[in-house]
Amino acid sequence: MPTPLVIDTDTAQDDCVALLVGLLDPAADLRAITMVAGNVGFDQQVRNAFLTLNVAGRLGEVPVHLGCRAPLTRAWVSAENVHGDGSGGLRMDQSGLEPESEHAVDALVRLAAEHPGELSIVAIGPLTNIAMAVAKDPDFARNVGSLYVMGGSNNGRGNITAAAEFNFYVDPEAAKAVFAAGFDVTVVPWDPLTLRQAVFGQERLDRIEAIGTPLSDFFTDVCAATLEFDRSVGIDGTTHPDSLTAAVLLHPELVRRSARYHVDVETAGELTRGYSAMSWGVHGLEPNATVVEEIDAEGFHAYLSGVLATETVPARKITRSV
């Protein structure tokens, strides 16, 4: 039976690819897309979500809910220097496309309460919406079947500062609250997992481009800006933490090694804002998360290539901005 899930996203680059996983994998029953402030301007993220629904041939089939437009207590920080507009300059006519009137936080609370213990959430942006849902409904964490979080580093380097991964850095208070809330949470960290095993170098990118579907063309376009940035900072390829997070929820066989950790997030440090402290069991702390430590990298690439080989018919014409 397909897994009922919500993807909570700040849609840009690999977030778009993660949406394709949720939209096209037969193992997924995507109930909603919820938007949170993160990678690029909020309205651009919404446009990117509708664009992704269109290229998947599912425009109008999955509701899009607008969530928190700013972190809990801090000013928003973007990653536009990394992702550009997050869509590789792709455009389409978005007239008549409207998000749901129900706020994303309310939608998350409602969907989890309707079928307690069954809904999975893939959180691939800052955790603001998830923390707000916890504050709104004391039963929310218990009602959610599983929470898969892309964020943090496992005692490794960050990607926005030396100490912090972007999602936790943008809203560290939200991340801290989520790890204290009692979810059944699985973490897909930036370092070492994504940085070392979910990077697609030129050979893998060439193989995807050669597939020749609207989806593989879309992938190549939306990843172009991030590829250029990644190479400028010494990463020889594009990084795919968000689609990996969706993939390991739906296909746990991709996980080769994971372990239980106590995860907490630094909110007060001047140099370590957003740092994820992952204690591996020797500090007397009760584990509160499963952290993925190793994946089948070739299996993940093959899986994603299979998703991108799906033939779709976009309802609206997609163009490239000049």
Mind explaining what this structure looks like?
With 322 residues, the chain is α/β, with parallel strands linked by helices. It has one domain (3-315): Ribonucleoside hydrolase-like (Inosine-uridine Nucleoside N-ribohydrolase, Chain A), CATH 3.90.245.10. The longest helix has 19 residues, at 214-232. The strands form 3 sheets. It has a 9-stranded mixed beta sheet, sandwiched between helices. A two-stranded antiparallel sheet has the order 4-13. It has helices at 14-24, 42-55, 80-83, 104-114, 128-136, 140-143, 166-170, 172-179, 190-197, 202-209, 214-232, 241-250, 297-308, and strands at residues 3-9, 28-35, 64-66, 90-91, 120-123, 146-150, 185-188, 199-200, 238-239, 255-265, 276-279, 289-295, 319-320. It is 38% helix and 19% strand.
